[in-house]
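Consider the following assembly input.
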Amino acid sequence: MPTITINNQKIEAKEGQTILEVAKDHHIDIPTLCHFPDLDVQSDCRICMSEIVGQKKLAPSCSTPVKEGMEIKTNSQRVYNARKTITELLLSNHDTNCTACERNMNCELQTLADTLGIDENRFENILEHEPIDDNNPSITRNADRCIKCGRCIEVCKNVQGIHVLDYMNRSHDTKVAPAHGKFLNDQVCTYCGQCANVCPVASITEKSDLEKVTHAIHDETKHVIVQTAPATRVSLGETLGMDSGSIVTGQMVAALRRVGFDKVFDTDFTADLTIMEEGHELLSRVKEGGKLPMITSCCPGWVNYAEQKNPDMLDHLSTAKSPQQMFGALAKTYYAEKEHIDPNNVYVVSIMPCTAKKFEAAREEMQVHKETADVDAVLTTRELGKMIKRAGVNFKNIGEESYDAPFGITSGAGAIFGATGGVMEAALRTVSEVVNEKPLEKLDFEDIRGMEGIKEASVTLGENTFKVAVAHTLSNAQKVLDDIKAGVSPYAFIEVMACPGGCIGGGGQPYTTTNAKRQERIDAIYNVDTAMKLRKSHENPAVNTLYEEYLSEPLSKRAHDLLHTHYKPR
Amino acid sequence: MEQKLLTKHIPGMDPMNIQAYLDVEGYQSFFKAFKTQPLDIIGDIEKSKLRGRGGAAFPVHIKMMSMAKQKETTRYIICNADEGEPGNFKDRYLMENNPHQLLEGMLIAAYATRANKGYIYIRGEFDTPIKIMHEAIRQAKAHGLLGTNIQGSGFDFDLEIRSGAGSYVCGEEFALIESIEGKSGRTRVKPPFPTDVGLFGKPTLINNVETFSNLPWILAMGGEAFASIGTESSTGTKLVSVSGNVKHPGVYEVPFGVPIRDVIDTLGGGTQNAQKIGMVQLSGASGPIIPEYMLDLTIDFDRFEDFDSKTGAGAIIVMDDQKDMFNILKRISDFFEHESCGKCTPCREGNVHMSKLLNKFLQSDATEKDLMNLESLSRVMHQTSLCGLGQSAPTAVLSTLKYFRDTYFDRIEHPQEGGLA
Ligand SMILES: Cc1cc2nc3c(=O)[nH]c(=O)nc-3n(C[C@H](O)[C@H](O)[C@H](O)COP(=O)(O)O)c2cc1C
Ligand code: SF4
Ligand code: SF4
Ligand code: SF4
Ligand code: SF4
């Protein structure tokens, strides 16, 4: 246990800790840019420099282990000068038009410049303008705002195992860009948006649909309805100044009404429906010797990855559409018919924790009518936060309201779709009760909850016991796929989510989603589940009515036409 | 004044013929090493107080010991023959004239640290040294000095040549390791150091050509004999590349402790047309620039601590008093701007602005504010850059700000005259 001092304060550090870790434990703030809690230490940006008394050079706090007797200063004049100069250098090669920027007031570089009191940059601006990369539906890359911190490279390479982004060129020509081409859509980019989520500045963001949606809301001819994904209710609060893990379901519904949506529905409803379709698909595959293991298909980042990198695995994917797309298909058929509205005038917006959902909504397979997409626009949780602020809604003090019928009656099983393991747990609740024809003693499948990368459980259906697995992040997904390819996969059913932690950790979630925050959101979402009277998809009365009135039964012809899809190598 | 330990047989010995080296007792130290415990070899090197000749002057035995203590049995040894710094040509000289001395040094180091695979990383443009080292390796193999179970000792050692695309930063040890791994040469964060996690994630000993070339002599004559040459802190001899305005540019081997002036006057023959010396840059582009009156300083690793520059005066670049200092500084700064790997902020962005500020001085367009900014930027780059490149890029500016401060002010105050040499 080394004893050190930081800013004259005596501190007992733990063995092997870096200056940054010790400082954090003792509530001493050291700014960082390239460092991100769950990623490897890069030590590139050099903003975290501290002074070690007796050493001529400054030391990077993120990568310098403390040693017995070290006297550290994190706020000396020398440290301040260095941080200020480095920030000025970054700003000198940056499009600093903050007021015209996506991340204005929510930007790590801007905050740093403000904290350091940089009012005038001593160095002239040398930025060379680069074209914007936004010819895909999900992600916008603006190189003029990139500070080359490398976080996006790390997350794409090491968490997702894809390595779309990398450093290009050298020297002051250094760029962070897609590895072999100019644009993301030339690449095996899954649009998962993890890069956007870790970016400290506005260099990678979602491609915004805010204007489009605002326009539709103000178009009198449109009946604008909105669905909210499971994960959004435990994260939206963060964009509006609340603690991570705050459950804001009722406030979100109220705010969406104030913003001007005609009806506010819940994707949890179609999550329940997904369980009905996907669960029965699994049972039929088991019974009829279909392709196993079956793999979930509700995550579009994962579907993109499978189509691009593992085209030989596509027949393992469930044909069930995702809850977002089931909602879209029903909105433009069942709902439009029921409400007597021309489907072309029903405008469907989804609020998603995800950037890949924008791509999914734009897929040509996701159109039950030729003229209109099933889902017209997708907003991320972050975009919704902005929209609420813009509309002048005082979110923290707004009263809670309930979803509209019919797509507002939901179960806890639908809610837990937002967390890794949730789809599997929801499916197991339903499948086992349907097959075994008796209620489960315990609804909580603890083994498949939480942040561990690959989790397993087993379930007994009638005479047989099946093993199932849950994988999140695409590098973990690849591991389970490799086992299938090698013929050694012991599983009948696998849930895959592209983002760490599942959708609560999605690329469209509030910025700087750390694993610690992910855990808080996961805890919140299971609290949503336990607080609900209905906790099983097959007991959702509204889902059952839908089958009675419209779809007849799971896997029916109509269900197939509206709720199932196919995949193709890309 | 010269004292030839490493260059004793240069010129004269045929580098393309191993027999010539064997005839002057070549490889005898390696055979001696076989009869010695690895730790005793390292002990002898400790006694010699040999410090690395590649720039950082780090004690060689400490790195070797750290390697020897590793649990991992796959270990590598790398010879850094990248020599990319302008004004340096002594490694090339050693490889072209005495390649087997280097191989023998690497063999001794490999045996002492139990590494079974080695690489010589040679600058891509070095056609002749690459050719000569290939031939030396071929002949050493043919003589059973490389390969499996060398001379029946049970020790295996295999050696390969790799060459880099010629960027200066690839001489930095981690950038070099990345380059051998097939990645673009950018450094890594330390710790861990290469002796813990180096090439392909394995413990790796990396030393300079001249460093390895010292080992045969040390093993033959003993560490204490070596330590008695040179000075207390810098033992042995130093190969010095002398260039610039001198009558006899070239590589000279002198013991540490010799005054710089003597090397320039006696070995280099003084300036070409008896012009007065204006500035001398030590070590190469990354080293300090000192005025004529400081030339009585002796060659020593710890002489330029002020600039954190462990130059050991491996290079001496002589400039006469007709040279425009800002022209020189601008050229140096352009070099670093171009060679920065772009990984860390102060070097990637800082060198651009350093060049721009120096250009203002060169164009007689600078103000006092520019001077302040240049000084502040240089200090920050030096203190915060990730690797030696960015840390030493401002050394020329920082040293001239110290020893030639008036020249900066003269240029600010008398712009019209200042444009002249
Ligand atoms: C930018 C840069 C370039 C370098 N180039 C070389 C080089 O060409 N040759 C060399 O031996 N060391 C070079 N070094 C030093 C190496 O990083 C390393 O310290 C050295 O190879 C260790 O060997 P030594 O202990 O024998 O000196 C360079 C360092 C930096 C920062
Ligand atoms: S990224 Fe940040 S610093 Fe840059 S323009 Fe946007 S808000 Fe300003
Ligand atoms: S969206 Fe996902 S896959 Fe695409 S570059 Fe970003 S992290 Fe990589
Ligand atoms: S795009 Fe963002 S995360 Fe990636 S290097 Fe640039 S600033 Fe960093
Ligand atoms: S100091 Fe320069 S060369 Fe070294 S890591 Fe930083 S940018 Fe690269």
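Residues A 146-152, 176, 198-201, 203-204 surround iron/sulfur cluster (ligand 4) (CB under 6 Å). Ask yourself how this observation constrains the way the partners meet.
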